[in-house]
Amino acid sequence: MDPHFPVHIRPAIPADATILADLGRSTFLETYEKYQQDDNFYAYIAETFTRDKIAAEITAPGTGYYLALVGAEAVGYTRYRREVHAEGERAVVQRIYVRGDWQGRGVGRQLMTVCTERAQEEGFDGIYLTVWPVNTPAVAFYQHIGFTLAGTVMFQLRDVVEEDFLMYKPLA
Fold first, then answer.
1. CA-closest candidate to residue 40, choices 50, 30, 32
2. What are the pLDDT digits (tens) for 129-170?
3. CA nearest to 157, candidates 40, 22, 30
4. What letter does residue 59 receive in the DSSP assignment?
5. If DSSP codes are grouped into helix, strand and coil, which group holds residue 82?
6. What's the number of CA atoms in the CB half-sphere (13 Å) around residue 16?
7. Which residue(s) pair with 167 in the sheet?
8. Local structure of 153: helix, strand or coil
């Protein structure tokens, strides 16, 4: 964490939806545009990171958005969810997005801590996330903080199906 710029993490509210949508779009582009520039990619971004969609997700049961702020400036966010799978219910970090100029300064670790603490409070003994394998800095970060590869899952990017890593961290 950068001691000169303390990061404050707080639960997001529906009024934050525009900030979250803008931050989601910009960080998604910053991270993945070098790998994809087709119409499908840009349509996914336009459909996924909308104010209305995120406002609805913020209030959805079993979901929590958390916003990372430095002063009044949004520098990252995460989305935590409880998901039902064949094996039962899981705690999942669905998104953890940090602006490039704030990566490596402890923001991602603080956002992840909020998610793992919530999962523990809800009685989960582990937490999952998925990541596109080409995002090697994210994969390395997750491994550094205790996640291990648990398999692969398919990710639907509109018309294209991609294979993501499924990673797991025990919370005991």
1. 32
2. 999 999 999 999 999 999 999 999 888 777 777 889 999 999
3. 40
4. T
5. strand
6. 23
7. 129, 149
8. strand
The DSSP secondary-structure symbol of 100 reads G
Q: How far apart are CA 138 and CA 13, in angstroms?
A: 26
Whose structure tokens read 């991609």?
Answer: 162
Give CA–CA dist 118/128, Å, rounded. Answer: 13
Contact partners, residue 169, CB within 8 Å, separation at least 6: 116, 126, 127, 128, 142, 145, 146, 147, 148
Q: How far apart are CA 24 and CA 81, in angstroms?
A: 17
Q: Give the contacts of 42 (CB within 8 A, at least 6 positions apart).
A: none
DSSP letter for 146, please.
T
Whose structure tokens read 């840009």? 42
Contact 77, 23 (CB under 8 A): yes
Q: Which pTM does this prediction carry?
A: 0.91
Cα separation, 95 vs 59, whole angstroms: 16
- Give the integer Cα–Cα distance in Å for 162 and 1: 33
Q: For residue 130, what pLDDT is reported?
A: 94
Tens of pLDDT, residue by residue over 51-102, are 999 999 999 999 999 999 999 999 999 999 999 888 889 999 999 999 999 9
